[in-house]
Structure formats: structure tokens, C-alpha cells
Amino acid sequence: MKPRLNLLTAAPAVLQPWIDLAQKSLASGLESKLMALVTMRISQINGCAFCLHFHLDEARKHGESEDRLHLLSAWRESAIYSERERAALGWAEALTLIAQTHAPDDVYETLRRHFSAEEQVKLTSIICQTNAWNRFNIGFRSVHPVEEKKQAA
User: Fold this and answer.
1) What is the pLDDT of residues 86-129, one digit of tens each?
2) How wide is the angle at C-alpha 109 spanned by C-alphas 106 and 115, nearest 5°?
3) Do 129 and 122 contact (CB within 8 A), yes or no?
4) Global pTM value
5) Which domains does the chain have, with CATH numbers?
6) Please, which contacts does 63-70 make with residues 24 or more away whose CB atoms are closer than 8 Å?
7) Would you say 91 and 123 are in contact if contact means Cβ atoms under 8 Å apart?
8) Distance of alpha carbon 43 from alpha carbon 50, whole angstroms
9) Residues 123, 88: contact at Cβ < 8 Å?
10) Both ends of the chain: CA-CA distance in Å?
């Protein structure tokens, strides 16, 4: 895959607020492992290799297990995710696929049982930002580091 442009150098003044918002959201107080699972699941759905590579590294840094990372795309069929994680993953999927799901009431009710109002906003912010970053990176064909190393060889 050939990158279309480097979005960070093409318009740094435009992207800096996005970067700042992402850093604030990641420091919002939600569990690091939870955020890593959510951002990975969104990137799986959207097919963003660049973001998957980034979030996989983050998940491992926060101590996420390989089993949980490998089973993430089948989280509904696995008992290794907590009810809180399931609520977050369900909400992330519903919002990522918003044109199809329209954020169903049952998914929201599950979210509401496990997250305070403030946490719901924090989580939704992370979901929205991850979807936006996926669109930036897919649209401009950002190449994840493994491909860069392979191309350099």
C-alpha cells in the first residue's frame, strides 16, 4: 500500500487540536485496558491497519492478555470480558455502525447500567475520536510501522 500523504505534516495546525483532544480523552480516568479494547474493536470494524497496530501496542503496554486481544472480534461469544467491557464494546460497535444501528435503546440501557453519565460521555468521545482517526488514516493510506520496515527491506 502506498501512502497518499502524511496527514501530520500536511496540516499540523488542523490536526493539533485533534491530538490534544485524544490525549485528554485518554487521560479521562476510564480504565486503560477498557479504552484499548474499545479502540481496537472500532479499528477492527473499520479495517484500519495503522490504528490497529497502534492500539495493539497500547493494549500490550497496559498488560492486556494475548487471549483477550485475539478473541476481541468475537467478544460476544467469549466469557473473558467483564459486563462493563461488554457494555462498552456494544456501545462502540453501535456508534461505529451508526447508519445501520441508530444506537439502539437496549445497547444504551446496557451501557447506562455500567457507566455513569460522565463516563458515558468520556467513552463516547473516545469512540468518536477513534472513528475519526480511522477515517484520516484509511483515507490517506497511512502505513503502519511493520509495512514501513517491510517496504524498506
Assistant:
1) 999 999 999 999 999 999 999 999 999 999 999 999 999 999 99
2) 145
3) no
4) 0.91
5) 31-141 (1.20.1290.10)
6) 63/33, 64/33, 64/36, 64/37, 68/37, 69/40
7) yes
8) 9
9) yes
10) 15
